[in-house]
Amino acid sequence: MRTIKKMVLVLFLSIMMTVSTVWASADKPGEGVTVKPARATWNTGFFQEAIVRQGLEALGYDVKEPKDLQNPIFYKSVALGDVDYWTNGWFPNHESQLPKNFHDVADTYGYVVKAGGLQGYLVSKRDVEKYKITSLDDFKREEVRKAFDKNGDGKADLTACPPGWGCENVISHHMKVYELDDYINPVKASYEAGMASALGAYKAGEPIFFYTWAPNWTIFKLKPGQDVMWINVPKIMPKDSQAAGVDRMTQSGIEGAVTDPIKLGFVVSDIRIVANKEFTAKNPAAKKFFEMFTVPLADINAQNTKMTEGEKSQKDVERHASEWISANQAQWDKWLGQARDAAK
After folding, report:
1. CA-CA distances (angstroms) from residue 96 to 3, 71, 120, 196, 264?
2. In the predicted model, is pLDDT for residue 309 greater than 80?
3. Rounded to the nearest 5°, which phi and psi values hold at 67?
4. How far is CA 190 from CA 137, 160, 161, 163, 260, in A?
5. What distance lies between CA 88 and its chain's CA centroid?
6. Same-domain check for residues 263 and 123
7. 203 and 164 share a domain?
8. Residues 220 and 244 in one domain
């Protein structure tokens, strides 16, 4: 009798251990899998990377520290399988940087921010209204140039991009094709210092004129529609490198635009996760999570602002990510649940 009871007990414990293992496996479908992420070199994308990494870790994956890579190097690396993914794909802006076989071996997933990769020119709203500014062409008017001339050279000063940045090349192209060299002076010093100066000037009641992109702290501190307005380029005249995205250089529904639609003169990109196809095929939970993950642009701008105010260490970024997850717990749990279901 004791032998039978002992056998029943052993069988019961064995079943419970099996059930426990199955449940643990279902809860953490990535258990035993090492993941090699990459990260773009611009810190405005660090926040999204940290959130996604925490999501994969919650699914049981062993996620290594991300490699900081320049765009072309990342796309070659993910195509080769040397890294598995990153959250910093800007499309169609990055199309020209892809290796020839990219679409055979890698793909884009979900939308971190749909149409989140905005770029363009902004002007203080009060001066848009005062001088009736709608496009770069308005800076050819003497009263407008004079209002925005900071150094007395007779040209409107534009807070632009440092030499070597992709946006600096586009701005130079705009100055040439719209014949603005005699009217606008693109200031190419440190962008962060230039924008800090612009913010101070705005608070002092002075006119400001600057280039920016999103996500970025600039449009958190200087809110489009409230403090500043997006203005048009005179007409769409793309560089050769912009040709693939020419239909996305004019956009509708942009908050704080002087017109709707607005001709931004820069390709508006979707921010997407890019991953190796072999990795996503073997890891359906990770693939599903990539497909669902998204962050409001306003949340990224707010986090980027925290970094400019001193909270910029990796520890700070990880904390920001954890705080965002806690503030969006219901949605987070739903994403994890659907990712786990995809692995069954």
Report:
1. 73, 11, 20, 32, 20
2. yes
3. -90, 130
4. 26, 9, 8, 9, 32
5. 6
6. yes
7. yes
8. yes
Q: What is the pTM of this model?
A: 0.78
Q: Give the separation between CA 330 and CA 285, rounded to whole angstroms.
A: 18
Q: In what helix (H) or strand (E) does residue 85 lie, and over which residues does it extend?
A: strand 85-91
Instruction: Please state which of the ranges 40-44, 306-310, 323-327 shows the lowest mean pLDDT.
Output: 40-44
Q: Decide: 133 and 231 in contact? Cβ < 8 Å.
A: yes
Together in a domain, 185 and 239: yes
> What domain range is 179 assigned to?
119-267
Per-residue tokens: 273:
């996760």
H/E element, 289 = helix 284-292
Residues with Cβ < 8 Å from 121, sequence gap 6 or more?
136, 158, 209, 210, 211, 230, 231, 233, 265
Residue 318 exposed, middle or buried by CB count within 10 Å (0-12, 13-18, 19+): middle
Residue 200: inside a domain: yes
Distances 109 to 42, 83, 117 between C-alpha atoms, Å:
21, 16, 16
Give yes or no: residues 207 and 254 share one domain: yes
How do residues 142-163 score in pLDDT, each as one tens digit?
999 999 999 999 999 999 998 8
Number of domains in the chain: 2
Amino acid of residue 97: Q
CB–CB of 200/208 below 8 Å? no
Residues 251 and 279 in one domain: no
Domain presence at residue 154: yes
**Alpha-carbon distance 36 to 46, whole Å?**
16
